[in-house]
Amino acid sequence: MKDTIPQPYQPTEVKKIGAVLIQVLEKYYQECYQAKGRSVPELNPSHLIELAQSSLDNPSRSFAELAELALSLGHRLHDPRYMGHQVPPVIPVSALFDILGTAANQGAAVFEMAPFGTAAERAVIQELGKLVGWTAGTFAGIGTHGGTLANVTALLAARNIRYSKVWREGMASSSALKPAIMTSEDSHYCIARACGILGLGTSQLIKVPIDDRRKMDLFEARKLLLKSKEQGFDVFAIVGSACTTPTGSFDDLEGVAALAKEFKLWFHVDGAHGASFLFSERYKSLLKGAELADSLTWDAHKMLFVPALSTYLLYKNAEHSWEAFAQDAPYLFDPKDPQGLAEFDGGLRTFECTKGALSLGLWGVWSLYGKEFLASLIERAMESTKVFYDLLKASPDFEPAHVPECNILCFQFKPTSMGTDLEKLSELQFKIRKRLLRDGEGYITGTRLGGRYYLRVTVINPLTSKEHFASLMDKIRDVAPNLES
Description:
CATH architecture of the largest domain: 3-Layer(aba) Sandwich
Strand content: 5-15%
Number of helices: 15
Oligomer: single chain
CATH superfamily of the largest domain: Type I PLP-dependent aspartate aminotransferase-like (Major domain)
Strand order of the largest sheet: 1-7-6-5-4-2-3
Distance between the termini: 73 Å
CATH class of the largest domain: Alpha Beta
CATH topology of the largest domain: Aspartate Aminotransferase, domain 2
Order of helices and strands: HHHHHEHHEHEHEHEEHEHHEEHEEH
Shape: globular
Structural class: alpha/beta
Number of strands: 11
């Protein structure tokens, strides 16, 4: 057996493929920015699977061919006509920083397996916590793969703190009353999922009605808390949304914090989308009260324009960051480690045993361009959303569903030919979105509010302009007449 380096591992092969990758990506971004052709491929799962399978069956294509295939049949978030889900067109260089972690396969659950990846995560967390308003050295956090994991982990810590025996002895040891969590009707579905995962049961999620601005109704929340014990519930945590997914509404976090203090509840803020507004001096007031939270979830892969997944779970009290889990695994995490590195092992604070170096993208763009650049992208998205809202308001055949509080906006197309039949109007919006998806010239989403279907945009691409909004409205006007019957 010859002692040779297999070709895929040879540095010359990496150099060759790396050069091709840069060319492929440059071409891809230029095509996206030109906004020509489809911004979303034809969504034919069987056909796409066949194409992927053909390369596995006949492994003979070049790297360039495979890379171009993957990019050409993916969703083009960098196309300025993309106004869909809360997923950004990433700052391109942030993806290259992420490549460093994946190319070297840095696993950040154990410090010694990803020393700098872990260090970058710690440094980012320290800066994020200071933006929340917490004092350096008093708080802590962990990076996770997604907001759902962060929210579940925070509520797991809250459960374990409230019921000290439950980790070892199970929920039967928790309380004579049924442990429960409170949140608003518009909170993210993962809060209900957390109740199932934590063994509470989704029936023990108390959903508070929303007010006319689609925020948690604090008056109703207080009434529900006062009644909770006589109904057999022991509410131990309350979750505020910053912001909600359907309409981008921010709960009154100061008001939620006051309820948490009055009723001795853990206060968690789901700031997956909205926490990034703390970067902006102009818009950070939307998060007023977040500094009062016991824990906060923050997705950098939304409004900080880095690749998924890059999420942070922050705890106001550093000691609480150890409460979610209790493991004896000296082969990975040894508290008696003579080097004293156990405190830096991320796996003790998170579900994941294998965890990527998910902070390199954010650390990289922050180091290159600074906090102010990230703030400018956020502010641009907010200003563009206001432009679209004004266009909708000025058009008699369109109606916005709400005044946008951030960069999420719902609306309906309301041609005079449809009259006032709400059911038919809802059906028309659904058909419009389906047709737009089929044509592939732009991308928006939809949601239901009060039982009615609305078109929905997240204005997140810094290249999206007034002309793109007007073009979308014209496209809707063009396709709608054939869909009304």
